[in-house]
Amino acid sequence: MHITYIHISYIYMSYGSYKNDFPKVSELRPKIEFFIDREMELRKLRTLVKSKNKILLVGLRGYGKTSLLVKFLDILEKEEKEIGIYVNCLRIYSGADLLLEVKNDIEKLDILEDKRVVEELEILAKLITNPKDALDNVFKKLSEIGTRVLIFDEISTMVQRFALQKPFRGAGGSRAVAAHLKSLIEAYDFSIIFSDTSISSLHELFEDYTSPLFRVFDTKIIIEPLSLQATLEFVRKLLGIKHVSLGEEEQLLISEFSGGVPQYIKMITALIDREMDKEEIMRVIDRDMEQGFLNEYFTALLDKFPWNEQEVLFAIAKGLERFSEINNQVINAAQALESLVRKNMVVRVRKSKKDVRYLIRDRLFKTWLSLQETPRYRKLSLRRAKLYSLGLEAMTREIFLTLEKSVLIRDALGREISINPTREVRRYEGALGEIDLIATTVKDETYIGEIYGGITCKKEKIDQLLRNIHIAEEMGYRNIRGLLITYFEPPEETIEYAKELVSSGVDIYILTYDQLKMISKYSRIRIW
Ligand SMILES: Nc1ncnc2c1ncn2[C@@H]1O[C@H](COP(=O)(O)OP(=O)(O)OP(=O)(O)O)[C@@H](O)[C@H]1O
Ligand SMILES: [Mg+2]
């Protein structure tokens, strides 16, 4: 009894600290207190909307689709004095809901003076019950008031709900809804943005050639995580609001855990309620992943997948990457993997005909999976999970693993090196020591890397790299090129030291964020 009480109160407490952070279903347009980055996406939306494009916006859960759209409408209204309407489809259950929701959004527009349409929509909502007529009238009214863009956020939800109602029900269901939407999109000449979290639903609606909406769209925008710099800015901002100050390395650690996903940045920073060192930060994250809100969040996320996809996700998270390995563990693995790839949860990497591998895109989710104890797999520690799947180090290995063509770059010392696709990439940990990166390339070179995940890369890291090279030679690797990989520009001292070594004939390079970014352009895993 006592234990139950503690458990409940713990969850309640941790929920308390989040409750203002989550977009509520009951909200119209969520309010944006501050907005970080997304400059490129905002610019793109502006240009596309100006030329009346039909746009598809895709992004995993919590990546910031809704925030981006609402911010965009803000700018559109304030700077261009244009009308944009936002519909949160999660709130729409019926035709009347749609009419009322559009009315609510119009009511809040500052630039529209003549609000007669508000009353008209209210009356229509009383008269119209079916979703088809509601859609017709919404498009018509919006066109009359000179709307520039209409946004349907979480569109697949609305399509599925409308499909079950007359006249769509019995007349083709979601196909009929899609066909009707297509006719409206083509009849009116304002811009439309459809956004959704479920990539497979979007795919079914817009990219499956049998769907009526196939190719109705001009552009697809994919939302990626925020960049490392933007993530750091976000973390600082959130900490500032709470008057908590953390050191730079600690801020970087939080960013690393978040993977640049806005929702995760918020959830993790919410755990920091006072000054903490790295050890403490790891501890609170570990605890939350085990019994706090992060655990609740990922349990719910896992629940959304059918059981055989869950089994595959566990297998990958526990370290099985190759198709052959996964297929040994899971019945019908091929089908589950294909579905996970379509949902964008998993990336397929084809190294050769016989060597196909799978990576889980969402690193924090992968980490949570690896922390679970299951009958078949051991629980990993957070520290190991971070090393192998979560942090910048793991990302770097994934970039090398999924590189698809050779990239010529100039390193931080000003030397040119061609980074070639790899056959095998791994981390070594054994009797001889530890090496962060061992990558053998298709040209039979071996990249030996020391990856530094902190901010100030001291010259000792170069000594560490030299030791790694030495170990690799003992292990029998030949044709070695040493890479010191650090995310921030190293201090002058480190550069000088490396230059001296190079001039005495040592073949080492220093790669920083810029070089990795170049490489990741040709790789399946994007740097964030
Ligand atoms: N660029 C940003 N600047 C500041 N906060 C952001 C930004 N992007 C997202 N957020 C915050 O991160 C959280 C998740 O963002 P949002 O709800 O926009 O994501 P989403 O992709 O719409 O998620 P879902 O799939 O759950 O609808 C929100 O609390 C939001 O305020
Ligand atoms: Mg959203």
Given as residue ranges, the uncertain stretches (5+ residues, pLDDT < 50) are: 1-21
What fold name stands as the CATH topology of the largest domain? Rossmann fold
Mean pLDDT: 91
Proportion of residues in β-strands = 15-25%
Taken from the alpha-carbon principal axes, the silhouette is: elongated
What features would you highlight for this structure?
single chain; 528 residues; alpha/beta; Rossmann fold; Helicase, Ruva Protein, domain 3; Arc Repressor Mutant, subunit A; 4 domains; 5-stranded parallel sheet; 5-stranded mixed sheet; 16% strand; elongated; binds adenosine-5'-triphosphate; binds magnesium ion
Structure characterization notes:
The strands form four sheets. Strands 2-3-4-1-5 form a five-stranded parallel β-sheet, with helices on both faces. Strands 10-11-12-13-14 form a five-stranded mixed β-sheet, sandwiched between helices. A two-stranded antiparallel ribbon has the order 6-7. It is elongated. It starts with a helix and ends in an 8-residue tail after the last helix. A hairpin with a 4-residue loop joins strand 11 and strand 12 (446-452). It contains 23 helices and 14 strands. The chain has four domains: 39-222, Rossmann fold (3-Layer(aba) Sandwich), CATH 3.40.50; 226-298, Helicase, Ruva Protein, domain 3; 305-377, Orthogonal Bundle (Arc Repressor Mutant, subunit A); 391-520, Trna Endonuclease, Chain: A, domain 1, CATH 3.40.1350. Mean pLDDT is 91; it is low at 1-21. It is an alpha/beta fold.
